[in-house]
Amino acid sequence: xxxxxxxxxxxxxxxxxxNSLLLTAVYGLVVAGSVLLLGAIIGDWVxxxxxxxxxxxxxxxxxxxxxxxxxxxxxxxxxxxxxxxLYHGWLLTMCYILVITIANIANLASTAxxxxxxxxxxxxVAGEDRSKLADMNATIxxxxxxxxxxxxxxxxxxxxxxSPMIGCGFISGWNLMSMCVEYLLLWKVYQKTPTLAVKSAKxxxxxxxxxxxxxxxxxxxxEGVQLIVEKDVTGFEPQQEKEVSCTARIAEPFITFRDGWVxxxxxxxxxxxxxxxxxxxxxxxxxxxxxxxxxxxxxxxSVLSLLMGASAVTGIMGTVAFTWLRHKCGLVRxxxxxGIAQFACLVxxxxxxxxxxxxxxxxxxxFADISARLFESEPLPTIASPEDKPEMFFATGMPNVLNxxxxxxxxxxxxxxxxxxxxxxxxxxxxxxxxxxxLWSFDLTVTQLLQENVVESERGIINGVQNSMNYLLDLLHxxxxxxxxxPEAFGLLVLISVSFVAMGHIMYFRFAQKILGKQxxxxxxxxxxxxxxxxxxxxxxxx
Length: 543
Hints:
Strand order of the largest sheet: 1-2
Number of strands: 2
Strand content: under 5%
Structural class: mainly alpha
Order of helices and strands: HHHHHHHEEHHHHHHHHHHH
């Protein structure tokens, strides 16, 4: 249900606003900004309340918000003409604002659900068995990949053969049923796992943590990692109870926000988390930007759907590779190998920028489009002149969107008299699809590192800040596209994306080097004896 809604809400907003991406862009900005600002506060709420209460509350709020949004959208679709005439259209505008607000609440609740289930419950259910934890993480990610394929297909078919209103009704009904089923399943898991009812107090968790608390019996090579000292965070020290003033209550969210980011910085896995966040600063994914670019390069919708299916398959392969590599080489080395594999595949994307068919033109300023709007106050044409048609075929969809036109640049079959070489776009998507293996394996590695090394009382707030970091870098990548939307600049965006991925993996390499030291490049170490020089001698040991 959640995947259906994430896919459909953008389509509904486009349909409502006359096939314009304005509402979708506003919604994306609101969602990213909300998680960026409230991620730490949501995580702190997860930490301070019982697991069952958090899971049930976030589940009900998320699904109830989706259901309510669906009902409002159905009403708008039914009575849009009448709403346009009431109060000069302000009533319809209020409906748009209400839909975006409630949808944002649903996304925040979904974030809380993901933190509590995928970052906390799963760790408690797995217990001390790290192999079981890895298998559960990989299984959840495979389910996520499959739902990313099936959910859009289901909603798309319903909206194609029915109508957007029918799609809204279907999603609302589905979420109502799924909420009841998920609620019961959560209750059963909670009943079968008594340890979920016990939540360690923050004052009891100042002990040392290690990357692998227990050496798995089925792991042949030892990880060779040292105990990691949990750094004290003053923001979480217990305080004496006293009356809270109104000013203190107002300042509490800001203090929580500050303490959350300070605690995140002091985590031993800080560099690994930052490395993962940097991977979000990229246009090398199957989002609206890259798919729009593919359309302008001559790829049809059916070809794109096949490419998206192939990316999902390689993503599932990445989850399989994660479990195999972790068993053979250990968790930390798995992240290093996955990062190298991802970057090696993305080199193909960098090469594609300079191949035949690439629209890269360094003689054209990447900011020409936006500067023409802001400083010359002259709208750029949405339809190319005859002599410009060959170049316009390479255009991304972004200039047309900014001009308020929704007509694709290549909608006219006579737009380009000469065939466009597909070498560049083929190399681009080959690299993107192949890189999914390393990407998802690396993502699972960092996820498990956070699960194993963050103390129980701080799992919520740390993972909330991690989500905020992810959204921050994702937001920066959209800003980058807005600032340089002209087609000649897409190659530069690809090179910048590859650079950020490289920086992310360099951060992870530094983290792995601190942990494993000289044992980093030794996959099989039956009797490791290396101790990290970066840790105090009295607080280190080998596993």
